[in-house]
Amino acid sequence: MGLTHAQITAAALDVLESDGLDKLSLRAVAARLEVRVNSVAWHVKDKAGLLSAAADAVIADCLPAHLPADPDERVRLLLTSYRAALRSRRDGAGLAREGFSLAGPHQLAFVEAFNAALRATGRSPKEAAWTAWTLIHFVLSLVDEEQMAPELTHGAKVAADPATFPCLAAAAEHLNADNYDDRFAYSVELILTGRSGKE
């Protein structure tokens, strides 16, 4: 029985989970499957194809079976599902960024549903596209921060002399808090309600 695309994708996600994005390669996947590198390359061509396949698999369940009728709620639910999918995998945000491709069926379906929800709020194609771009990049950055190695985040707290930097000192407790869920909700609302009014 020959090697399948699904087996390669599953092995890629296993490598991602155990070794991280930096170690995800055709060679690592081939070793995990105990096959030749050429056997993997035949299915995904190169590393870009491997990353695209793995990224597509990560968001396979991002599209809920039932979406709310209200388009704003639909946007929020899709974003929440997207963030959850990225957080469910080690280096999920990095993989999504490096493996982004509208060649994957799951990525295509998600982007279509997300843009359709934004269009249903009354946005033009341009405004929907740019709002989608803003929101997706915000989520990628937030999840990147959440998934950063603990040794890089511990001790990296904002500390400012109130006499010299009064505004920064007053904001420090909010900048230092690990309140990712609150920041996610706040920022999504800010982006959705802060429409530029410009075409």
What is the element string, with H for helices and E for strands? Answer: HHHHHHHHHHH
Task: Estimate percent helicity.
Answer: 55-70%
- pLDDT < 50 runs, ≥5 residues: none
Please give the alpha-carbon distance between the first and last residues: 55 Å
Number of strands: 0
Give an overview in words.
The protein has eleven helices and no strands. 68% of the residues lie in helices and 0% in strands. The chain has 199 residues and is mainly alpha-helical.
Main attributes?
199 residues; single chain; 68% helix; flat; mainly alpha
In short:
This protein is mostly helical and 199 residues long. Helix content is 68%, strand content 0%. The longest helix is centred in the C-terminal third of the chain and has 23 residues, at 125-147.
Task: Describe the secondary-structure layout.
Blueprint: H1 5-19, H2 26-33, H3 37-44, H4 47-58, H5 71-87, H6 92-98, H7 105-120, H8 125-147, H9 150-153, H10 166-176, H11 180-193
